[in-house]
Design a protein that fits this description.
The protein contains nine helices and 15 strands. It has about 350 residues and is an alpha/beta fold. Helix 3 runs parallel beside helix 4, helix 4 packs antiparallel against helix 9 and helix 5 packs parallel to helix 7. Pfam families: GFO_IDH_MocA, GFO_IDH_MocA_C3.
Amino acid sequence: MESNKKKIRFAVVGCGHIGKRHAEMVVRDPGAELVALCDIRPKEELGIEAYPVAFFSEMTSLLQSGLDIDVINICVPNGLHAELAIQAIESGHHVVIEKPMALQVQDAERVLQTSLKYQKEVFCVMQNRYSPPSVWIKQMIDSGRLGKIYLVQLNCFWNRDERYYKPGGWHGDACLDGGTLFTQFSHFIDIMYWLFGDIQHIQARFADFNHQQLTDFEDSGLVTFEFVNGGMGCLNYSTAVWNKNMESSMLIVAENGSVKIGGQYMNEVEYCHIKDYEMPELAPTNPGNDYGPYKGSAQNHNFVIRNVVEVLQHTGAQNTTTALEGLKIVDIIRRIYALK
């Protein structure tokens, strides 16, 4: 089926851990082709020997190269996402934007407006939506199986220490990183929004326990809120956990039962007791991204690339993570951070 369709041609801007993961998933997808990489650092330092494609040291020269490119994947530090995405769209390309879409609501809105003006697709990377427990719980909520939502508790307790916040890097920088909720936990806020909708009446407390020397922002927070659609919730998070990630979990208390999804990456259903319901066997979740000394979210970038290919080949597939949703996540995080 795939062979008679034109391959979707990708360029990846930013060749750090995540950029290389994007490049790898593009190379592995039968409907995709990697045509260029771009990074401001020297090619020799990047460890990209596996990808013998055109290399550019700045995005402008990539855009002026005349290469046939359909999609540009923006995998640079958070604070640069919006600006580079807008450049890519204005030059006639669809974009995949690593999370978060932007650090300011007005920048996310500019990306959205530019995409509408130029009629280009924006795919925001929110890969936790693809893990089997997420897909399952989404169906449970959308079908009304759980009834009214009463209480939702999100816990994100990870380790991020000097092995992650290295001197001279962008992690921990106020302008480039933006904060713990943007870089570490925006996936979980995305899942919450995707499942339960928007929040209101937010209250929050923040602390910086062991990152004073490492970052410009808090390492821990306790946030409570109400859902616009009914029910209430809280988000408890910290990157001050000693030595290794502890858990990311979501607990739901609802009218017809209770569920807890847990594990290090919300990758297993730990508790499920629902009226007249037998829990099915779910497919296994992909392992977490392994960055050596520290770990990240589940490796689901392959689903993101697959979705891009299917949408752009006009198979009838829908964009699963739109610019509007990317904007909403930035908006929610900004409203939480406004309470600092």
